[in-house]
Amino acid sequence: MQVIPVIDIRNGVVVRAVAGRRKDYAPIVTPLATSSAPLDVASGLMSLHCFNALYIADLDAIEGRGDNRASIRAIAEGFPQLRLWVDAGLRRVAEARDWLEMDNVDVVFGSETIGSPEEIAWVTENARAILSLDFKGRLFLGPETLLFSPEIWPRRVIVMTLHRVGAGAGPDLARVAHIAADAGDRTMIAAGGVRDMADLRMLERSGAAGALVATALHDGRLGRDDLLRLSQK
């Protein structure tokens, strides 16, 4: 079970997610870093554990009001061994190609923002592209044909339950299991609601190969020893 820490960036600082209500996100206060600057928070996470990947959501880019490319580039250059999964609200392949100029960046296309069938085809075929199937409550955010056509999913798929992000409600095990059953041998990553090791074990039994995690890392419910045990399995 792979743990991928999450950094949400807005207006140049890392913010703490609350149940997908982006207007309520405030600058993060964490024992892992002395400030909410993205590079500081990334450094704090890497001091906790030698993670293989880091998920970065550029909330300004997702919401169409600027971007935090400079901050993300600083993390990419500061940790060249770390794969960055960048969600910048991509809608077009040309935008993805700009990000892929950074050697250690993979691009996330969210179902909430993905564009035409041509974009979907590119995501399907590109090894550095990740699809996020985005849900808010029972609502799927995106074209239904994408949800019900697993044959066009890429090798890595995120099941993003936005209403559970930062809410401490636990992961949506039933949804993860349902999508994992359709995914075949693709790598399924759960996102939203992970509180502790018990949640990770249940997600693994539900078919997830990994999980995006933020709050549980910052409040210590997933600690250094937990992460070490997971990496040794």
From TrEMBL:
Q: Does the keyword Amino-acid biosynthesis apply?
A: yes
Q: Name one GO molecular function term.
A: 1-(5-phosphoribosyl)-5-[(5-phosphoribosylamino)methylideneamino]imidazole-4-carboxamide isomerase activity
Q: Name one Pfam family in it.
A: His_biosynth
Question: Which PANTHER family does this entry report, sorted A to Z?
Answer: 1-(5-PHOSPHORIBOSYL)-5-[(5-PHOSPHORIBOSYLAMINO)METHYLIDENEAMINO] IMIDAZOLE-4-CARBOXAMIDE ISOMERASE
Q: Which SUPFAM superfamilies match?
A: Ribulose-phoshate binding barrel
Q: Single GO cellular component annotation?
A: cytoplasm
What the entry lists under InterPro entries is as follows: Aldolase_TIM, His_biosynth, Isoase_HisA-like, RibuloseP-bd_barrel
The source organism is Methylocystis parvus
The similarity comment for this entry is: Belongs to the HisA/HisF family.
For this entry, the protein name equals: Nickel transporter
Q: Name one GO biological process term.
A: L-histidine biosynthetic process
- Pathway per the UniProt entry: Amino-acid biosynthesis
| Alphabetic keyword roster | Amino-acid biosynthesis, Histidine biosynthesis
